[in-house]
Amino acid sequence: MTMRATHSRVYIDRHGRRMKQMSLAQRTILRKAYIRQSPGWRHPLVGYILCPFIIAVAMVCTLFLQKALNIVHFASAFPILAILLVALFWGVGPALIAVALGTVLLDYYFVPPFGQIMAGTWRDTIQLVPFIIAGCTIALITAQRERARLLALGAEQELQVYAEEMELANRKLEEADQMKDQFLSIASHELKTPVTSIRGHAQLTIHRLNKQKNASPEMEEIGMALKKINDQTTRLTNLIDDLMDVSSIRAGKLELRKQKSDLRDICREAVEDEHLLNGRPITLNMPERAVNVAVDRDRMAQVLLNLISNAIKYSPDGSPIEVILNERPSSALIQVKDSGKGIPKDQQTHIFEIFYRTPDAQTSSKRGLGLGLAISKNIVERHDGSIWCESEPGREALSSSSSQSRRLVSPGDYATYYPPIPARSPFLLLDGGEVDLCALLPAYAA
Q: Which of the following CATH numbers is that of domain 259-418: 3.40.50.1450, 3.90.170.10, 3.30.565.10, 3.40.1110.10?
């Protein structure tokens, strides 16, 4: 048999079967373990003691039949049966002893000259060869059976060791995961206070500088520096808020304060905020009548801001964003369209996982940790809604979300267009009318 070695002292034969080579010490340990698991009466020592009596009983039965029938054609039948029983219950060693004893007794009683052991010619002695071959074959089969049992026992013990190691590793991973969640929670809370303080002082100083009519060039430079500080602290504040939300989600402590709300107001505020912040043109299409549902107003606004900002972030600068609301008999469907390059289908289910970013997003200059969509998915699902992405590379991206609605409203054709904001405009007040919106979803991962 040609065999090739692998790691862990496991060999593969030419048929592709894996065979484990065990040392003598390992076999001894496994045999002792197998004996401990067996009943006391099946101990090999008991077999060595009982096999002479069993062979003797078999010979007595054979002699009794010979006396009753005056002739016995198969004198070795009962001894073979006795050897089989000994091998079955006590293993190879007692079986070989039974073969030897049976050979001696058959030679003494049934091979001429009777009453003597190995006293006849070789022609007479050869009659015992079939019995010896049959007995040794039984012992060989028993040996293979014992080997299979030992291998099974070894595999069972190895699996038990692996299971214990896996349990220990899982316990350590759970502890590490809990420590990570605790770190996220503690770090987020500890960072939020100083960052908020820095941001507040920066905004206060900017406000005071803006009141000065004739600012010197040095003060303008200070104002620009403070604006950068304000922008970066705002980004840090949003990041800290996301980390706190992730920590609450993983701990199962994210609370929802549901109340009856008109989603038009929530969506109008979210769209206007993103429009003022980014200056991108946004079109909203929605029913004319209100959509009143029980939602957490702040959390739903957070979802909308995440989704719209993602659509803006991963689409060409200056391209329009379209938000569409359609109310169905038992739910409301919201779609967000952008003109980005799309997401492959194999990545669309992963974009809602924590810390996941598409390969294109990772290689781009867009900042993000991949938290926004994961948080949005959790919030939407806790409102008994669903969120998904419909996109193909090279085509416009379409993101959708559905949420439960309490009543049916006939949708109308009502749209509000928010035009681009000039680059140097400090602020812009919009009166966009009423917007009927229920839920929202982006096309790209943060």
A: 3.30.565.10
